[in-house]
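hey so i finally got around to running the thing on that chain from the lab meeting. sorry it took forever, my laptop kept dying and i had to restart like 3 times. anyway pasting the input first so we r on the same page abt which one it is
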Amino acid sequence: TLDQGVTLKGASRDGTILDFQKMCQGFIITHEGAVLRDLTVTKCLNTSPSDSSPAYGGAIYIQFGLVENCLISNSKANNPSGKGKYCYGGGVYMKGGVLSGCEITGCEAGSARVTAIGNALYIAGGTVTGCDVHHNDGGYTSSNDGTGMNSASSVVYMDAGSLLFSKIHDNNKDGIPGVYQKGSGTIVANCLIYGNTGKKWGGGLYKTSGYTYYCTIWGNVIAGDTSGISGAYVSGGTMKNCIVVGNGPATSSGGSVNVSGGTFQYNVVDKDLAETTKIKDNTNNSDVKFTDAAN
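ok and heres what got predicted. didnt touch it at all, straight out
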């Protein structure tokens, strides 16, 4: 636990590797002056002590402080009994603080009959900026958060806080392989969300609230999608000045967005604007040219 204003710094991210061998959680950071920097945190396992006690963050729990330029990999938040409802953030659980320039990969949350929210990252506060979240593929998917929506399915779950200048890509999930933006004050801005594949609800962005600006959502696929949910499903909040094109199965003509509510304006989409009045204040362009589509 980093509960004082100290800095734990490695020689380099790849040169200092803390391997927890699935024995315990990596770090709990609770001081605003605490810093974790330039190292790898891997093979952590945070197991909830009882059915009614949460497991917050497989590798790292951040309440205050800064985590910078770290690789967080192959970790899990879990309740092994299969009877509990509390596993939040397979890689990182954020209640506050800053996660900057980090990579999260190979993380998962949950087991059978457990409500496990956020395979890679649960954001309940604070700021995530300049991070790379990819190849977080496991986790359990059939629990329910009480609203009819399966929170366990999302790779990144946002109840509060900000997600900025980050990449969410190449995650494979039964449910939402990208971002579930739920909190009313959440902000997703200047992010790339691409190459994620799943089976339910929304591929790149599943959005019920919050603010989304200047993001590119491309190349995400929900199996069997015919309505546009592969790119962005929007039922609330505000989404402006984004590019949402090239999503969905190759055989689908449903476009890349499905908008049922909220404010959706000044975006570039590959969908007939006359299909619904919800997307009339946008631009239809299915032939957007990216300088480097792979990045």
